Amino acid sequence: MKKHLIFDFGAVVFRWQPVDLLREVLPAHASDADAARALAERIFKGYTDAWGRFDHGTIEVPELVEALAVQSGLSAAEMQRLVDAVPAALEPLPDTVAWLDRLRAAGHRLFYLSNMPAPFADQLEARHAFLGHFESGVFSGRVQLAKPDAAIFRLALERFGIAAEDTVFFDDHPANVDAARALGLHAVLFQNAAQAEADLRAEGLVG
């Protein structure tokens, strides 16, 4: 059995639905799902470009806002509203939180590895006591590295003091799962807590 479990945050531990967020925050520009998806592509660009640099901790919010305004064609004020709305949109996923409770009670060591800008990480830590379930974690914005770069996985394993072969990693992005597997972790593409728990039980990786 694997006793060490590393969790991504967005869409794994916390809800992350950027299309829904855009429809809520910028309804004039995201009046339907298709318009919101197109706008999300211009803004996030697969978490590369400006948002990728924000995740890496190499730009601050003012520079991000200006860059997103250029990418999106919208105003800086609108992009500031979007950035300000993100932390509240990252709501805990109840099924995952309940599973974390069970895993911790069963004696598993829990860690996190998240592509998360430092300002958002600060707010999550301040707002959510259940993050105390995690023994340790790495936020990309605090180490200037981000998934799927192998370097951030190596840094996390070293910081946590665990071996790749004894560890399961959960993430909703295939590229991150592939990167983890290349380093010897058992990685699971996360869709929801029930699916992930069932997959691990079927493979005899957790009790």
UniProtKB/TrEMBL annotation:
For whether the record's keyword set contains Kinase, the answer is no
Do the record's keywords include Hydrolase?
Answer: yes
So which domain of life are we looking at?
Bacteria
Q: Which UniProt keywords apply?
A: Hydrolase
PANTHER family recorded for this chain?
Answer: ALPHA-D-GLUCOSE 1-PHOSPHATE PHOSPHATASE, FLAVIN MONONUCLEOTIDE HYDROLASE 1, CHLOROPLATIC
Q: Per its UniProt record, what NCBIfam families does this chain match?
A: HAD-SF-IA-v3
Q: What is this protein called?
A: Putative hydrolase of the HAD superfamily
Q: Which organism is it from?
A: Sphaerotilus mobilis
